[in-house]
Amino acid sequence: MKLIPLPAFSDNYLWLLHDEAGQALVVDPGDAAPVQDALQRLGACPTLGVDSEKAPQRDQFLPDSPPHSGTMGQEDGKKWAAAAHSQPTIPKSDRLLGLQLRAILVTHHHPDHVGGVAALRDATGAQVYGPARETVPEPLVRLQQGDTVEVLGLRFAVLDVPGHTAGHIAFFAPEAEGGPLLFCGDTLFSGGCGRLFEGTPAQMLASLDQLAALPDATRVCCAHEYTLSNLKFARAVEPDNQALRDYQQRCEDLRAQGLPTLPSTIALERAINPFLRTREAAVAAAAQRHDPAVNPADPVAVLAALRAWKNGFQ
Ligand SMILES: [Zn+2]
């Protein structure tokens, strides 16, 4: 199995997973074009099988803007308008020369996660799996907590993780080759979490608690490259956290080379992500320093204060 983050828009990653036989799935394709390009470029030659030598080059990970530009960390809705109006055309005669797209996994309804779903499904016949309680282009298999789906021979457990949106789901494959695999959309980012557009702090805390309880080695495939801006905030919350300091250095080195900081792991996020550390004394105290009304013994209040602080953090 190969796991590849395809850059899209200013800071999205569309995660592509494919096996040796050339069968592929993609997660949250907000734009069809980069997926279609990868399906063709990484695909199997009919006589030679999958060409693994065509693995993505470093340049592929370079975003449109420099790593330290102001585009990172923007979780607002401004870019969604552009995503919604993006209607790539995929020549049907060119399709399926490479990887065969078997499935599209959708975590939530935002346009930068679903904008390419219809075009990819029409071009490839891929089955779409998405949240039971959100509006996603039909037809799709609607999923919620407790459901499992099998794709590419991999079993995914579906987790309800409301907060960023009301019906947000995540896909967890405990037995994936190379270690457990989590596709968490905009719920958990490396060093941060999604904005609370439709849910409450209590819902987001429960969602993050559920993700934090996954195995240490779980690879966390977030939908945005927000890591450096998140870590800047995390350092403001926990300036004495050495693991956080070390991780920030590693991520700065990766971004300087144009490489993704993702996937992260659950063990790492538990050590450095303030939104998974609301019960840590240092994090709770920082939240209370920022907002004296916060009860540091209440992790919901701490998370709410951190999220409000981060929203205005430069
Ligand atoms: Zn979103």
From TrEMBL:
Top-level taxonomy: Bacteria, Pseudomonadati, Pseudomonadota, Betaproteobacteria, Burkholderiales
Segments of this protein annotated with the region Disordered: 49-77
Boundaries of every Metallo-beta-lactamase domain copy: 11-224
Complex formation: Monomer.
Stated role: Thiolesterase that catalyzes the hydrolysis of S-D-lactoyl-glutathione to form glutathione and D-lactic acid.
Enzyme Commission number, as recorded: 3.1.2.6
Pathway the protein acts in: Secondary metabolite metabolism; methylglyoxal degradation; (R)-lactate from methylglyoxal: step 2/2
Cofactor(s) needed for function: Zn(2+)
Catalytic activity: an S-(2-hydroxyacyl)glutathione + H2O = a 2-hydroxy carboxylate + glutathione + H(+)
Organism: Extensimonas vulgaris
Binding site for Zn(2+) 2: 112-113, 186, 224
Pfam families tied to this protein: HAGH_C, Lactamase_B
Co-factor note (free text): Binds 2 Zn(2+) ions per subunit.
Name the UniProt record assigns to this protein: Hydroxyacylglutathione hydrolase
GO biological process, one term: methylglyoxal catabolic process to D-lactate via S-lactoyl-glutathione
Residues that hold Zn(2+) 1 according to the record: 108, 110, 164, 186
Superkingdom field: Bacteria
Name of the coding gene: gloB
Gene Ontology MF annotations: hydroxyacylglutathione hydrolase activity; metal ion binding
Keywords: Hydrolase, Metal-binding, Zinc
Similarity comment: family membership: Belongs to the metallo-beta-lactamase superfamily. Glyoxalase II family.
CDD domains linked: hydroxyacylglutathione_hydrolase_MBL-fold
Keyword Phosphoprotein on entry: no
